[in-house]
Every structure is written in C-alpha cells, then in structure tokens.
Amino acid sequence: MSMELDVFVGNTTLLDDEVYELWLDGYPVSDAVQARAEAGVLRQWDPSPEVLLSDTTDQYRTFQMCERLLHCPTKLANQLLFQIPAHRQAALIERYYAFDSALARDLLGKKLSKGTKKDLDDISARTGVTLKSCRRQFENFRRVFKVVEELKGPLVENIQHHFLLPDRLARDYAAVVFFASNRFETGKRKLQYLSFQDLAFCAQQLISDWTVGAGGSMSEDMDVDLEKEFLHDLKDLKILISDKDLLGQHKSLVCAALRGKIKVFNEMEANFKSLSRALVSIAAKLTHTRDVRGLFIHLVEKFIEPCHSDRWSIRDLRLFLTHYTSTAHRLHCFRYLGIWERYMGVIKSCILKMYHD
Predict the structure, then answer these.
(1) Can you state the percent helix, strand and coil of the chain, rounding each to 5?
(2) CA 212 to CA 14: how far, in whole Å?
(3) So what's the pLDDT on residue 223?
(4) Among residues 70, 71, 64, 73, which one has the least CA distance to residue 32?
(5) Residue 152 — φ and ψ, nearest 5°?
(6) Contact indicator for 174, 156 with CB cutoff of 8 Å
(7) What pLDDT is recorded for position 5?
(8) Please, which of 77, 133, 214, 245 could form a disulfide with 26 given CB 3.0 to 4.6 Å?
(9) How distant, in Å, are the alpha carbons of 155, 185, 333, 354 from that of 103?
(10) What 8-state DSSP symbol labels residue 329?
(11) pLDDT in tens, 60-119
C-alpha cells in the first residue's frame, strides 16, 4: 500500500508555546500529549494520536537540548545549532526564568543551598507547583545568585546583562538575590500575609537607598551589601527619643500639622511617644546583624500592629509618616537630617506597602 507524504524542509527551529509551557511546568511527555488532546489539538489539526505523540516528543527533545543554552542566555544568541529568531529567543529566556510567586515567597530570605533544595518536596506540596518545576526555578535562583553576588555595578543591570531578562523580571530576581544575601527573616507567622511582590518592593527600596552602591559607588557588591557606615550612624537618631525636649518638640510639630486632618488624631497624640520610640529604636539597633535580619518582623510588631489596633487608615498613616519625617527639619539642635531622611524614606515606603488596612 503506497503512502503519500508532504515534506517541508527548513532551517528555522519550530517551537510550540503551549508545549514549552507544559515542559516548563514539569509534565512528562504522556501527560503533555493528554493535555494537548484535551485542549483540542486533535480536533483543530486532525493529526493522529501517534503524530501528536511524535510531535510532542520531538518538541521536548528540542527544549532539553536548548536548556543548557538557557542556563547561560548570552550563548543562545551566538550558537548555530538552533535557528531561532531574536524575538523568540527573548520569549524563551523570559518564560524559562519566570517563576511562581508562591514558590519565591516560600524561598525568600532562605539560603539558596543544597539544604534548602531538600525542602522542595514540602514546598511543592504547599504551593501546588510540580516538583520538577520547583527544582528548575530553585536552580535558576541559585544560578543568578552565584553569577551576580560578587559583581561590581547595579544589581538589576548585572542580571539583565548576564541573563537578558526584561526589567520587571530582573528586578524580581534582584529582590531574591538581595534577600538571600542578607538573610532577612520572612518566614514568621506574622509576616505570612505579605506577598512576594510586597517584599520585593521593600527590597528595591533598601537596594536603592541603604546599600553600598546607593550613593553611586562602584564598590564590590554595591547593591547586595547594606552600607555598614550608614547603619552605624543610625545610632545617632536615638537623640530624638532620649532628649525629652526634642521628643516634645517633635510631637508638638506633628500634632500641629495633623490636627483636623486625620481621623485617629486623638490616638496618634496619645501614642506618639511609643510610635516614635518604635521607629527610632528599630533604626538604632540595625548595627546588629540579628536586628537587620529581623527588620520586617520588628516593623510589624512594634509599629504596624499598634496602628492596626487603633484602626488607622492607610491615608492617616501616610500623612503621619510624611509629617513625622518632614518636621524634623524644624527641630532645634537636630544635626542628623541626612541620615534621618535616608532612613525614614525607606521605612515609610516599606510600612505603607506592608500595611493592609
């Protein structure tokens, strides 16, 4: 029995987006074939089940061969084995390095080591992400971390340069690297309400204003290491709570600015000293590694929870923090405005992001 076949020969590597997504999600070929069949591929193109299996297997083989190049994306553009247009290369890279927020949130602040890798079974069960996909995403985090942690220059730009990621994704990876390097505590029960994006936003504030490179320095690890001299200088802010005259002046200025403008004025006036002590005490203790790692839990327990108890709105909180920061300019004999503004700029942004009223 004769059989006629139509054959097309070309040198462009054909990649199916849906199959790529199934491969990235860790599905075996058999499950991918079933998913494609249920999605209507058989009805749409009328291939036989055997052809669908062959095509899926071929696609998986191609992706597996490409994977070693995706580990070092700059090599993908310079190789000759796969003829893939530039825009398709960019899409392959972006989707390979994309990650599940639930997984990233679970890993945030943990050491990206073999010890953590052993926990991926539990993380997979908690997040609903397949174990194979968890492993790929974890290895992506580790790979990026190892490449950029010792590099000079801006962290986000280094990630973009070496991994060719779009800006938003590069910034998310920068947050993962920054949290892993500084080991911030994010796993406490009281912090579980915070999403990955909440904490990634806070990481960007810290990178922009508190790191060695925040002032434009080209020092090593400029966007990974917090500036020790700045953290040491924060102890000078204790005068705002230890000097009774300054504390009284500060309270008077803030109350004058907010009278009639916030609904919780009476609560703010009554609790001003405790709120101010909380913010300044957090600053003064950041010379200790343990307290740096506990920054977010301290903000929640010492400041955010008391405001929640008094039913502060996000608007009231924004107004308070704005005037609490700005009125320091009018305090007599307060000589640490530069440090104060650098500290409170980040703290204000983080609190407002973390405060879910």
Answers:
(1) 70, 0, 30
(2) 46
(3) 75
(4) 64
(5) -80, 155
(6) yes
(7) 57
(8) 133
(9) 22, 16, 49, 19
(10) G
(11) 999 999 999 999 999 998 888 889 999 999 999 999 999 999 999 999 988 898 888 888
